[in-house]
Structures are given as C-alpha cells and as structure tokens.
Design a protein that fits this description.
The protein has 135 residues and is mainly beta. The longest helix is centred in the middle third of the chain and has 13 residues. The two termini are 22 Å apart. The model has no long low-confidence stretch (mean pLDDT 92).
Length: 135
C-alpha cells in the first residue's frame, strides 16, 4: 500500500487500488476489494448495491498510473476510448485490474485496461495518461 500511496495522490475514499499483484515492464496487475461499507453503496443502489462504472474506470486509470511507479511524478488521467461495462461488480467482489502499455509518446502512455472479477471481464477500456512533475 505504501508503494501505491507514494505514486498516487489519491486517498480514501477515492483510492481505488488496494494492492499490486505483479509488475513487469509494460504490464501491471492490481486489485481492489469491494466492501459494503464504501460510501457509494449508500445511494448506488439501496437494496441492490452495484459498483458505479465510473469508479471501475477510475480504478483502471489509477492502476495505469502505477505502471511507471515514479514517486516524483503524478499520473494524470487524460482520456478514455472504447469503454465497455460487461458485468456488474458487487460488494464482496475482488476486482483485478490488468493494464498493459500499448503506446508511448512524449510524457503520455496509452494502455489497454481490463477489470475482472474472477475470470470474467466486467469492464475494458483504452486509456491515456500523462505524467506531471510533483510540486
């Protein structure tokens, strides 16, 4: 967790990555344990809690920011293409984020991102991130 918080500026309740499973070259695999006590479930949706798609997308973007693990830089989420939500995520699920760099240009990276629960893909996207110097 310290490694994550040294790179990402996010903190609870907006930190969407709990740990790093693996990191090698242009790939990173991270996870988030989805729990009932998270604030979004008070209103999304009472009696049928579902993780908001935008928070799954944010988790993919935060994971992509960890690919470079540069403590002197802040990863910035610049854009998303081909975003698809395929399966609902519920409290008690563990989301695994699989991120792979598919392009690099200047201080930006393009990644293919997948969010999975077990072996099932629940969301996918192509994301663009930039790196900015910390002040």
């Amino acid at each position: 967790m310290d490694e994550i918080m040294n790179v990402l500026p996010h903190r609870y309740p907006f930190l969407m990555v709990d740990g790093v499973i693996s990191k090698s070259g242009k790939k990173v695999v991270t996870f988030k344990n989805v729990t009932y006590n998270e604030p979004q479930f008070q209103g999304h949706f009472p009696g049928n809690p579902i993780m908001p798609g935008v928070l799954i997308l944010e988790g993919m973007a935060q994971s992509a920011g960890l690919i470079m693990l540069q403590p002197k830089k802040i990863p910035l989420f610049i854009g998303a293409d081909k975003v698809r939500f395929k399966k609902p995520v519920k409290p008690g699920d563990r989301i695994t984020y699989e991120i792979e760099i598919v392009g690099e240009r200047f201080s930006m990276i393009t990644v293919n991102a997948k969010a999975k629960v077990g072996d099932e893909v629940c969301a996918s996207a192509t994301l663009i991130l930039g790196m900015k110097d910390k002040i």
